[in-house]
Each structure stands twice: as structure tokens, then as C-alpha cells.
Q: What sequence folds into this?
């Protein structure tokens, strides 16, 4: 059990800087998810924490000790890899015990810990098989088991579920969450899937382009995104954005209509060009308002999604509960729930007052 | 398997392409296996049979019989012409075109017979005397030991050195890695004969002439081996190595416990190649080993060939014995060549 601190950590390959100074505090026992689009540096950051990738600048501290100079083995961490990276020539049992053998753990203790971990992950009947005889989900469990038996201070997961099919992914997601609740270790989990991030994390770190965009609890990120990127990345389907201009405390949309904002919630300057963000579930059909030309309708039975665009061409997604009678090609009017509006300035920063 | 081997194009009877492929395959068998069969059968022929003209495929031995009054067993002939036609006689001696023979039941009475009027009585049999002679008259076991020692030790050293070099060149990123690899590949373009003299000078100055180590060490690192293993190791996912590093494995342990077992198919191939190279190597041992007690089998074979006469019987027998280990190696290791297991641990 340990906490993790990153202090202006950077990574450069020659002139190309891929991690541009990240500060982050992960408290003991927290489940922290690094999320971001591909190429944002989240896996690199994880590998820097693990020690597999050297750090160009800054400090990585585990339990308060700077570990920059330590190799991966000495940091007391365990990692689950995207491709599972099981040793193909060893049985499941050997895969699980390899790490413990390397630390010269007594045989009896190895057997005991391997047995306990296998039981917990329900792979105890597979111990004498080789990885090639296992299904994807079973391999995943073995990979997690290999991390569990080491009893590491921090668990690192590098997109562990991306190779599984959708159903199994949901199942394993629950399993990893349960594992976290049971053993209570600090865990750091990398994914590009914001649904995984929202459902599993205690804290989410949204990364873009080697920078930390926002760090906080999932619902805080959802309710109070600090910038346009986080607002667009967190939440599915994506938030709708409209170009607008501040006009006497209200917002005049480029698409035409004007909507009043809740009093005193935003720092607004008269005449400023801003972006209005409205989530799909805060747009409601109304008698008058924003015009949506419906291009596509998704009917899922319990809920429906309307896709289309506004008169000025901004893409719009509307979530409507239940079944809808709207047909593609028609025009409907929408009214946004301005209590749930987000407003961003021209640089993409949130104008919300704290 | 049987189904695969007996698959033909014609459903009911053989199509003409089936005949063609069988004929082609049969031709291949004769061309490739014929000489080996000829060699093996000839090694069981007596010196006289080897000189026989026209040559015969099967080894024949002339019937001999012990006749009272004569010290050694006499060769038996069948008379084809004259008074004794149809009878078997034992030849006592031959003088020019006349043979002196006796009838087995009348050992005292010499009969003169033109040699054209008799035919040897022969039957197919294996003359093991060639092999017995190898062990009795020549120090076959010493040559075998020298060859085996060189092959086994050199192959072991080759595998260890080459796999370590290949590991470094495939899995570590360091400055000049490409240059090193290019140099290794580049040496493939230099024929052995070009470096023979400088190599001899170096080995002589190190005092390794007439020592088995003088044969083993110069060829221990082979560019072919490094290249072969490196290309294979490139296919081992880096994440497996990273996983091992997270599992507290030292770099040496990664090499020994992860890389080597996963490269087993490539290593088996290199082992087979190395065993063949070393066992059949002739030129360099010929230069480095001049005393007969250090001779390898190949050098011993060469020594049977004199300037004026060649001991064909011993040569053939020893050639057969020299071939056997290579055949055995192939039989046992060939299954490792086909199977690759490295890629099954990931997705």
C-alpha cells in the first residue's frame, strides 16, 4: 500500500517532448484512471511510473521516496499489460510464481500465495495449462493474478481490457473493481475508453498531448469540466457545442436563438465570443428554440438518440428517454436546460465561477 | 497423414498427372537416395568385390571351403566346360590362364583347368570385415572422439555466443546497433579462403595449432547464426520482457528463462546447421591439425587416399560411420524446426 506523487515529470525522445510536465497526487488506496485519446502519453506516463521507461525530468515519489533511479523491480509495483504478456512457454502456475521465485520467496509461501490468488480469480483449475490453451478472459485473469501474487505497493494496468469482446469487457470491468475493493491497493489504470474511466475510477486524470487537462472525481469531471477538451471527452455521447456571443447576460447562438444563463454562475464579458456546451440529455424538444434538422435516429427501445445539425451546421446529438416518433429528415425545435449549461471562453477554458 | 499421402487427382483410377507426379517423386528418390544406398552396400563389399567389373549393386561373397591338406579355406568354383562340367571344385592356385583345382572329395588329385572354364560360386552376404578392420587397424575411436568433441563443444559455444549477441542486437536499443549488425552481416560476404592465412597466423601465434581448441574457437561466432537468431528474437513481443522486468527478473534471467526457451525453434535450426558444419568441416581442420592423433573423421577419411592407391574398403566403411551421427541428429531435431511457440502468449 502506498501513495504516488508525480512532480513536474517530463519525458523527451530527443527533441520531441511527449510528457510535458505533469503533477499528480494519487492517494493511498485510490483507483486512479489515466484517460485520453491515443497518443496523449498516458501509456508512456504509466511506463515511467513503472520504471520501464526512464524519466527525463521531474520526480516520481512512491510513499514519499523518490524512485527515479530505481529499476522496475525495486519499486515494488506490478503491471498488467495490454497484450497480457504471459510467458507462453510456462504453465499458468509457473507464470504466477515466476516473480516470487525471482525474489527468492520460500517455496511453501509461493504455493500458498499462488493458490490464494488463483482461487480469488477463479483460475485454480487452469494452473497446469499453458497460455495458448486459455481463452481471452482467462488469460486476462492470469495476467491480473500474476500481479496479485506479488502483493505490490501499487498496481498498474495498461489498457488491460482492450483485447476483450464487449460482453467480457463489462464483466472484467466489474471484476477489477471488486478486486480493488477487496484488496484495497492503490491502482493506476490506463484506458482510452471514458466509459471504463467513469465506471471504475475514484479519480480520473484526463491527459492530452502530454499534459494533464484535469484531475478529479468522475462526476466532478462530468459536472464541472475545466475546459472544452475534458467537456468533450468525458460523457457519452459527446457534449454538444455551439458558438455563441454574450449579449446582455444571455447567450446569442450563432445558430439564431438566444438563451438566458443562470444568474451569477459564469464570468461573462459583454460581447465575448464563447462556446456553449450542452449535454445530449439536457436538450429537450420544445415548441420553439434551437432548430434541429434530424439526419439519423437511433432507437434502442428504452431510449433514443437523435443526430442532426443546427442551422449554422454544428452537429447536435439529443438523448431522449423512451421511444421517439421523430423521423429522419424532419425539423424539430429544442430547448436547452440552461441550468446544466457549460460556457467556455475562446481559449477553451471554463467560465464557471468556483 | 495416410489420407494426405495417398491423395490423388483421379477419383476412381489414377489420372495421368498422378502417374507423372509418382514418376517424378520416384526419380527424386532414386537420385537422392541411390548414392547413399550404393555407398552403404559397397561398404559391405570385400576388396575383390569392389574391383569387380562390371560393378554390382549387392555385395557378393565367394563360397570358400576347408579342404583337408590345405591350410586356408579355398575358394569354390563351378566348372562350365570339359570333363568336370557342372561340378564344384576348390581352386588351390592360379598360374597365368591356368587354374589348379581339386575336387572336394578327392583332395589329393590336382586338376589343371583354363580359367575361362570356371565360374565363382557366390552368394549375397555382408562382409563386416571392413568395419572390423577400422577398429583393429586404425584408431577409429580416437578420430570419432575428436570429431564428436569438436562438434559438441563448438556447437554449444556457438549457440551461447550467438544467442547472446542476437539478444543484444534484437532487444536493446543502443548507439551503433545498426552498424554492429551491418558489420556482422558484412562478414558473410568474405569467403573463408580469404581469411585462411591470417587466421592461421593468429591461431599459430596463440599456440593452438594441433589442439582441438584451435579448430573450435575460430568459428564459434557465426554471422549466419547471429542473423538467424536475431530475426527470430525480433518476433518475441517486448511486453513479455517488460513483464519479466516487473517480475524482478535480472537481464541475465530474462535471457536464460524467457528468450532462450522462446527461441527454441530457431536455436534448434542453428544447432542442426552448426553440427553439420562442424562435423563435415574439412579445410580448417586440415590446416590446424597436422598430427594424426588429433585427426577428425574427415581428416582420417582423407588419409585413406594415398597418392598411388586408395583403401576403398576402409574409406567406404568409415564414410558410412561418419554419416550416421548427422542422420541421427536430423531424425531427432527436425520436429523442432517446424514449430514456433513464441507468438501464442499474447492476444
A:
Amino acid at each position: 500500500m502506498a501513495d504516488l506523487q508525480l512532480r513536474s515529470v517530463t519525458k523527451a525522445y530527443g527533441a520531441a517532448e511527449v510528457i510535458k510536465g505533469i503533477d499528480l497526487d494519487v492517494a493511498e488506496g485510490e483507483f486512479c484512471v489515466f484517460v485520453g485519446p491515443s497518443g496523449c502519453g498516458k501509456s508512456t506516463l504509466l511506463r515511467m511510473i513503472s520504471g520501464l521507461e526512464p524519466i527525463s525530468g521531474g520526480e516520481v515519489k512512491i510513499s514519499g521516496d523518490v524512485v527515479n533511479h530505481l529499476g522496475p523491480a525495486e519499486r515494488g509495483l506490478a503491471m498488467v499489460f495490454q497484450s497480457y504478456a504471459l510467458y507462453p512457454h510456462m504453465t499458468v502456475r509457473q507464470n504466477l510464481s515466476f516473480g516470487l521465485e525471482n525474489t527468492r520467496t520460500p517455496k511453501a509461501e509461493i504455493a500458498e500465495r499462488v493458490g490464494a490468488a488463483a482461487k480469488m480469480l477463479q483460475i485454480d483449475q487452469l494452473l497446469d495449462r499453458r497460455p495458448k490453451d486459455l481463452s481471452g478472459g482467462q488469460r486476462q485473469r492470469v495476467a491480473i493474478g500474476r500481479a496479485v501474487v506479488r502483493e505490490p505497493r501499487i498496481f498498474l494496468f495498461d489498457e488491460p481490457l482492450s483485447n476483450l469482446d464487449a460482453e467480457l469487457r463489462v464483466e472484467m470491468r466489474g471484476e477489477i473493481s471488486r478486486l480493488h475493493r477487496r484488496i484495497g491497493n492503490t491502482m493506476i489504470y490506463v484506458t482510452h475508453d471514458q466509459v471504463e474511466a467513469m465506471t471504475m475510477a475514484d479519480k480520473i486524470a484526463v491527459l492530452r498531448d502530454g499534459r494533464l487537462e484535469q484531475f478529479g472525481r468522475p462526476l466532478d469531471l462530468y459536472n464541472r469540466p475545466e475546459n472544452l477538451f475534458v467537456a468533450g471527452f468525458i460523457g457519452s455521447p459527446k457534449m454538444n457545442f455551439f458558438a455563441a456571443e454574450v449579449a446582455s447576460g444571455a447567450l446569442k447562438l450563432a445558430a439564431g436563438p438566444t438563451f438566458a444563463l443562470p444568474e451569477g454562475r459564469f464570468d461573462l464579458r459583454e460581447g465575448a465570443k464563447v462556446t456553449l456546451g450542452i449535454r445530449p440529455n439536457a436538450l429537450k424538444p420544445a415548441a420553439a428554440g434551437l432548430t434541429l434538422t434530424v439526419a439519423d435516429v437511433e432507437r434502442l427501445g428504452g431510449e433514443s438518440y437523435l443526430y442532426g445539425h443546427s442551422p449554422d451546421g454544428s452537429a447536435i446529438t439529443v438523448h431522449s428517454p423512451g421511444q421517439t416518433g421523430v423521423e429522419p429528415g424532419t425539423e424539430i425545435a429544442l430547448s436547452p436546460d440552461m441550468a446544466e449549461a457549460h460556457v467556455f471562453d475562446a481559449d477553451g477554458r471554463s467560465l464557471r465561477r468556483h | 497423414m495416410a489420407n494426405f499421402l495417398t491423395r490423388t487427382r483421379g477419383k476412381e483410377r489414377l489420372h495421368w498427372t498422378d502417374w507423372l507426379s509418382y514418376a517424378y517423386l520416384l526419380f527424386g528418390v532414386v537420385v537422392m537416395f541411390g548414392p547413399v544406398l550404393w555407398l552403404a552396400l559397397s561398404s559391405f563389399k570385400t576388396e575383390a568385390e569392389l574391383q569387380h567389373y562390371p560393378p554390382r549393386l549387392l555385395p557378393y561373397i565367394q563360397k570358400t571351403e576347408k579342404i583337408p591338406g590345405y591350410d586356408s579355406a579355398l575358394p569354390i568354383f563351378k566348372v562350365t566346360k570339359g570333363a568336370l562340367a557342372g561340378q564344384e571344385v576348390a581352386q588351390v592356385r592360379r598360374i597365368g590362364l591356368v587354374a589348379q583345382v581339386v575336387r572336394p572329395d578327392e583332395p589329393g588329385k590336382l586338376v589343371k583347368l583354363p580359367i575361362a572354364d570356371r565360374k565363382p560360386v557366390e552368394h549375397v552376404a555382408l562382409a563386416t570385415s571392413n568395419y572390423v578392420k577400422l577398429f583393429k587397424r586404425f584408431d577409429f575411436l580416437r578420430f570419432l572422439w575428436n570429431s564428436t568433441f569438436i562438434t559438441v563443444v563448438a556447437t554449444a559455444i556457438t549457440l551461447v555466443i550467438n544467442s547472446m549477441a542476437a539478444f543484444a542486437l534484437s532487444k536493446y536499443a543502443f548507439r551503433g546497433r545498426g552498424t554492429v549488425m551491418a558489420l556482422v552481416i558484412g562478414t558473410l560476404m568474405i569467403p573463408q579462403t580469404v581469411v585462411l592465412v591470417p587466421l592461421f597466423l593468429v591461431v599459430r601465434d596463440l599456440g593452438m595449432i594441433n589442439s582441438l581448441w584451435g579448430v573450435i574457437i575460430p568459428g564459434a561466432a557465426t554471422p549466419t547464426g547471429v542473423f538467424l537468431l536475431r530475426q527470430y528474437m525480433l518476433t518475441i513481443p517486448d511486453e513479455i520482457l517488460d513483464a519479466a522486468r516487473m517480475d524482478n527478473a535480472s537481464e541475465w534471467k530474462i535471457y536464460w528463462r524467457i528468450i532462450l526457451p522462446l527461441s527454441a525453434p530457431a536455436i534448434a535450426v542453428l544447432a542442426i546447421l552448426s553440427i553439420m558444419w562442424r562435423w563435415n568441416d574439412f579445410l580448417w581442420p586440415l590446416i590446424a591439425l597436422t598430427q594424426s592423433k588429433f585427426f577428425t573423421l574427415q581428416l582420417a577419411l582423407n588419409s585413406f587416399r594415398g597418392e598411388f592407391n586408395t583403401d576403398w574398403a576402409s574409406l567406404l566403411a568409415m564414410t558410412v560411420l561418419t554419416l550416421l551421427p548427422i542422420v541421427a541428429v536430423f531424425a531427432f531435431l527436425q520436429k523442432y524446426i517446424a514449430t514456433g511457440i513464441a507468438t501464442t502468449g499474447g492476444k
Notes: Residues 166-183 of chain A form the longest helix (18 residues). Chain A touches chain B through 29 residues (CB under 8 Å). The mean pLDDT of chain A is 91. The longest strand of chain A covers residues 283-299.
